[in-house]
Structures are given as C-alpha cells and as structure tokens.
Amino acid sequence: MNLLRRHGHWILVAYVAFVFIQSLFFKFTGSPETVWIFEGKLDPWAASLGFPGLFAPGGIFSAKVVGSAELVASLLLLAGTVRPAWRGLQVLGAALGLAVISGAIFFHLFTPLGIAVANADGSSDGGELFALACGVWIACAALLWVRRDLWRGWLRGR
Question: Which residues pair with 155 in a beta bridge?
C-alpha cells in the first residue's frame, strides 16, 4: 500500500492528463465531433429546459470553457508530481478534474447525449467517451484518496 501511495500517483496523473490533454485539440479547434456534442446535442437539450446558449460558444459550459478547466486540472496534476512540496497542487488538480468529469458523466447519463455518443453522420463512439470519463473519475477519486492526509489537514486548518 505504501508503494502505491508513494509512486501510484504517477499512473493516475498520467492517465488523467492524457485523457484531458488529448481532448483539447477537439475542444479548442471546433472539431465536428465536439460541435455536434456541445451545440448539436447538449445546447438544444439545455434550451428545452429554458437555458439556451449554455453549451454554445460563449456559454458557461462551452467546449472551450470545459477544455480550459481540463487543461488547468492537468497542469495542476502534473506540477504536483515535480516536487513533494507541490503535492497540494495535485489535490487541487484532482478535485477540479473530479468536478469537470462528474459533469461529463452526468450529461452522458441524463441527457440525449447518451452513453454511446451518436455522431452527426450516424456513427457511434460505442461508449468510448463515457468509458474514458469513468476512468478519469476513478483516477481523480483515487488521487484524492492517496493525498487524503494533505486535504484533511487543510480542512482541519493545519
């Protein structure tokens, strides 16, 4: 267990950073897949609930906003691996990552997006995005568990 606590964080950080960073290309370039998800599926769903533009460009949950949060989470996670004194950054990155990915999982489960995302051309991702999101959620939760002494100390004011 001590080995996992000392070195297991590398695997968890690498996985989360890989998933988040590789998705940035899609979110920041306006790829057809991302436009379909945010503007073709999620924004019309939000509009039907009285929140038009929530996922559209410029919306509070636009692809670029979500991508920016994922980038910040990745940078915090990676910075926390550089020095033991910076482990607190890893806690912040894992917490931000957990928050972002919890939103993604929610939208996969409770909106027309679905677990297997249907693309504009009718093809499906077969649940790949959802599976990656679940893996990121588990990895971020595990990182918070590994670093629990640190954030518990913060909560107690130490």
Answer: none
Is residue 158 within 8 Å of residue 45, measured between CB atoms? no
User: Measured in whole angstroms, how far is the alpha carbon of residue 92 from the centre of its chain?
Assistant: 13
Task: Evaluate the CA torsion angle 76, 142, 104, 118 in order and state its sign.
Answer: positive
Alpha-carbon gap, residue 13 to 19, rounded angstroms:
10
Residue 153's contacts (CB-CB under 8 Å, 6 or more residues apart) are none
Strands (E) across the chain are located at none
d(CA 104, CA 110): 10
User: How much is the average pLDDT of 122-128?
Assistant: 91
Instruction: Output the pTM of the full model.
Output: 0.91
Can you tell me which residue has the tokens 């629990």? 148
Q: Can you tell me the distance from the alpha carbon of 113 to that of 127, in angstroms, rounded to the nearest whole number?
A: 11
| Domain ranges for the chain | 2-156
pLDDT digits (tens, 9 = 90+) for 16-29: 999 999 999 999 99
